[in-house]
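Design request, tokens follow.
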């Protein structure tokens, strides 16, 4: 259910993002070194920029993890307000044939 408050109540799996950031950082470092040794300065620079972006992203993720549960609400906190009246009941069974 969408309520329109998703930007304010969005949650993110920060530890999964951290490990994906580590994976990207390792490949960016490897790419920078490999292209520099192969004599491809343009590709080495591109990988270096990616290395910088991954490092900044990892720093922001670690900052949010260290800030605690304010940025990581538990599974008991829904990302939306529950609808009034609870879940709909299935009602009586319907027959397909008249």
């Amino acid at each position: 259910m969408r309520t329109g408050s998703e930007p304010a109540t969005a949650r993110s799996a920060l530890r999964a993002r951290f490990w994906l950031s580590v994976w990207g950082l390792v490949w960016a470092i490897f790419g920078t070194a490999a292209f520099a040794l192969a004599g491809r300065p343009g590709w080495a620079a591109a990988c270096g920029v990616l290395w910088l972006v991954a490092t900044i992203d990892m720093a922001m993720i670690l900052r949010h993890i260290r800030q605690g549960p304010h940025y990581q609400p538990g599974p008991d906190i829904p990302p939306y307000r529950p609808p009034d009246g609870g879940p709909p009941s299935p009602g009586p069974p319907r027959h397909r044939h008249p």
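Comment from the thread starter after seeing the answer: thanks! The radius of gyration is 23 Å.
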